[in-house]
Amino acid sequence: MSSLRIVSYNVRYFGHATRGLASTRRAMQRIAAAISALDPLPSIVCLQEVETRSIRSTVAHPGDETQLERFMTMLSSELLAAGKSDAYRAYYFPAHAYRLSARTHVYTTGLAILAHEDFEVDHHNAATPHDITHRRLQTVRGLKQTRICAHVRFRERRARAHRAIEIFNTHLSLPSTLAAEFWTQPRRLGWGRNQLEEARNLARFVERERASDNFAVVGDFNALPGSPVYQYLVEDRGWVDAFAQRYRFSAAELASWPTAGFLRMRMHLDHVFTGPGLRFLDFDGTHPFGDRSAPFHGLSDHVPMVARCRLVGGDAPASSRPVPRSTSRPPPRGAP
Fold first, then answer.
1. Cα distance between residue 165 and residue 93, in whole Å
2. pLDDT digits (tens, 9 = 90+) for 156-210
3. Do residues 137 and 178 lie in contact, with contact meaning Cβ atoms separated by under 8 Å?
């Protein structure tokens, strides 16, 4: 295996134009086109905030397909339009549903992983994604949005050694508003006790399920660099922040390089953590949130992390390319 490209992207239910209130066909097409334009194409695409079928996913974009099925149809069309014969297989990992009745959902939440046809998936937990949610109060247990971890183990079909790589895709909760410190402490994202418990649940699952050191844990962690959640994963669990390591960012510099935004706030919430079996070569195609020249600008309240890695001990030489334009400049000001 020479190298492979991994994309992690919170797509906000393909409804950023409506502030997340409703999925739109236009948003879905633009995201599909942006992914199709990546060169090289990603081997694995990890998506957060993807629906199944609900009022929110169909009110502005009617149809009988699930949201992921519609997106895959558009992705195939965009690949063909770009002159690429590539194809992907999609796996959906349901997390939570807010119901009006047994057959009518107001909205649903979940994760998705797309695997390029060049890769064979040996294992996935789409039927039973692992619940990492921390539920402090049993009285509101049913109202708490379920948080999960998706897991796939895959290998390149044409590789000589057929060494497997594992990807864990997740989306942690926001800090609990029921905790006193949420209202009394100035720092929140990654400081919530519920978030730290979910990080521990996540780490236990990864350590139990992974078959080797060839793994990466990606997603929207809702946690800033330097926060207790971030420090627990990096220092206590020993996971490497691949983006920070590749570009030698300190925690302060990393926190000032935003991957998400809300109103005037800019935050670094999306991470790519890795085990010692993978070496990350570059993040070409990754742009700071708010960069108007970026192909994914305006498509979500997050930007994708676009990473290229290879197996340690593989036959590909280390990258000698310079830091890409979007990551070589000083971290933008104004981020927390």
1. 19
2. 887 655 789 999 999 999 998 666 565 556 678 999 999 999 999 999 999 999 9
3. yes
Q: Residue for token digits 């009022």?
A: 55
Do residues 180 and 199 lie in contact, with contact meaning Cβ atoms separated by under 8 Å? no
What single DSSP character describes residue 139? G
Distance CA 299, CA 65 (A): 22
Which tens digits make up the pLDDT trace of 138-156? 545 556 789 999 999 999 8
Residue 11 is classified by DSSP as -
Between the alpha carbon of residue 263 and those of residues 15, 48, 75, 116, the distances in Å are 16, 21, 30, 35
* Residue 26, phi then psi, degrees to nearest 5: -60, -45
Distance CA 209, CA 166 (A): 9
CA distance 277 to 216: 9
Euclidean distance between CA atoms 124 and 115, whole angstroms: 11
Q: How far apart are CA 224 and CA 94, in angstroms?
A: 26
- The rounded distance, in Å, linking the Cα atoms of 196 and 327 is 29
Structural domains present in the chain: 4-328 (3.60.10.10)
Instruction: Find the helix or strand (DSSP H, E) in which 75 lies.
Output: helix 67-81
User: Using CA atoms, how far apart are residues 260 and 291, in angstroms rounded to an integer?
Assistant: 11
